[in-house]
Amino acid sequence: MKEIVIKTDRLSKRFGDFIAVNEISFEVQKGEIFGFLGANGAGKTTAMRMLCGLSIPSSGTAEIAGFEVYKQAEQIKRNIGYMSQKFSLYEDLTVSENISFFAGIYGLTNREIKEKGEALVEQLGLEKETKKLVGSLPLGWKQKLSFSVAVLHEPKIVFLDEPTGGVDPVTRRQFWDLIYEASAKGITIFVTTHYMDEAEYCDRISIMVDGRIAALDSPSKLKTQFKAGTMDEVFYQLARGAKRGD
């Protein structure tokens, strides 16, 4: 049996009378690429913040990498990587400085920083760019560098919040190659995206509607269940059903 690295049971988050995340329950296995989909305001980001140990749930339970979200948030943070939609590195530092800074935060030794940093730069083909400010790099390179830094310490899980927003299709595909490589090493990928074609790249996906998980399965099984040819059609049916109150 595969190891479960994310487990939630009726996890909820309320802000006053507003329920942002409403009793979501699911499990994610080690090395899995798990897509977390939903329209703006569906509760994706709020749920991700709870899973990362950045926000305390209102009710329910969750374990991340074996640690409990209420009492062990700091241990969770040390065992995960994170990349936000708006890019996670410092644009006024060089490529090399960013790698060293974040590797140090993740607790790598000076020797590990040197070895892993050199390997990362070579992998991305940035040997001639190490002394350039990150702000001067094209968006696609920034995002690939940001992801590579997020997994430099080999976390158990990496959380990606809309990681390919605003880049061209070729760069998006290259970014997903990096995701596949990390998954092959046993790193679990938890990714939010609004690109439905990217949902097809995931092992399983959950689709949130109004704070609840409206559907959860592999892309192929969801398309069969909803008699749809694409994930766009699945998402449309769920959104339409929510508007009707189905």
UniProtKB/TrEMBL annotation:
GO molecular function: ATP binding; ATP hydrolysis activity
Key words of the record: ATP-binding, Nucleotide-binding
Domain of life from the UniProt record: Bacteria
Coiled-coil parts of chain: none
UniProt-recorded name of the protein: ABC-2 type transport system ATP-binding protein
All copies of domain ABC transporter, residue ranges: 6-235
Organism for this UniProt entry: Pedobacter steynii
Pfam families named in the record: ABC_tran (PF00005)
Signal peptide location: none
PANTHER family recorded: ABC TRANSPORTER G FAMILY MEMBER 20 ISOFORM X1 (PTHR43038:SF3), ATP-BINDING CASSETTE, SUB-FAMILY H, MEMBER 1 (PTHR43038)
Keyword Metal-binding on entry: no
